[in-house]
């Protein structure tokens, strides 16, 4: 039955594809059904190519969003499937979909895109294929930041910190991989925004350290997402690190 469902991903009816992919994502997110669906995907040679085709050719925002969510679940739960993604066709399709969502001001749909690239960069040797897309990634990151709400005039809400830290780390890694640290700094608008955020995070860090010296209860604001973002900002703004 699962194989039949996955074969239907080769269809062309967007509403049907949307429902199928939502079903797939729901089952992949369920710990009980996850092993069955991963096994079915491993056994269906056409499943990931079908999703890649949708990413590269569809303009349906909801469909693109759920494609990213499904792929993110798949590679996060089964690194053996990451190898499928290390090819130019997949990378081009992923950036085509991300660019369309960003252009349609659907930046909130891109959280899975950033985590997907992070996992692939960690699990595979895809980085060399991503280096030519560094400028596009910077643009997507800046647009994603612009599309978030604000916790303060210069800082996005805490719920976005982990995604931002992950995306910024990837951009910095690509800069280092291309040896472009000095010759190709971050885009001016993005750099200015990141500097403002970094200064605000440093102020929060200093306040927390002062409270700790006074013996006050430790604040929960300096969690893992804070340190991930703070470290990512330090690396991005200081190429020598």
Automatic annotation (TrEMBL):
GO terms for cellular component: nucleus. InterPro entries: Synovial_Prolif_Regulator (IPR052464). It comes from the Eukaryota. Its main location: nucleus. Keywords: Nucleus. It is found in: Nucleus. PANTHER family: PROTEIN SAAL1 (PTHR23424:SF23), SERUM AMYLOID A (PTHR23424). Belongs to the SAAL1 family. This is Uncharacterized protein. It comes from Ixodes scapularis (Black-legged tick).
């Amino acid at each position: 039955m699962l194989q039949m469902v996955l074969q239907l991903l080769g269809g062309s009816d967007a509403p049907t594809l949307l429902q199928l992919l939502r079903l797939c994502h729901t089952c992949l997110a369920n710990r009980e059904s996850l092993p069955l669906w991963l096994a079915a995907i491993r056994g269906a040679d056409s499943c990931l190519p079908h999703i890649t085709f949708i990413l590269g050719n569809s303009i349906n925002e909801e469909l693109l969003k759920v494609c990213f969510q499904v792929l993110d679940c798949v590679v996060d739960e089964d690194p053996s499937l990451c190898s499928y993604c290390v090819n130019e066709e997949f990378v081009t399709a992923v950036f085509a979909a991300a660019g369309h969502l960003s252009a349609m001001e659907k930046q909130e749909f891109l959280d899975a895109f950033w985590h997907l690239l992070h996992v692939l960069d960690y699990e595979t040797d895809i980085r060399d294929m991503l280096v030519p897309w560094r400028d596009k990634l910077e643009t997507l990151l800046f647009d994603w930041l612009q599309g978030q709400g604000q916790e303060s005039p210069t800082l996005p809400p805490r719920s976005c910190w982990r995604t931002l830290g992950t995306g910024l780390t990837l951009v910095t890694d690509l800069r280092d991989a291309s040896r472009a640290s000095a010759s190709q700094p971050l885009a001016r608008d993005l750099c200015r925004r990141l500097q403002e955020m970094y200064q605000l995070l440093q102020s929060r860090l200093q306040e927390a350290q002062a409270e700790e010296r006074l013996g006050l209860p430790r604040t929960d604001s300096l969690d893992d997402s804070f340190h991930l973002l703070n470290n990512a900002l330090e690396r991005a703004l200081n190429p020598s690190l």
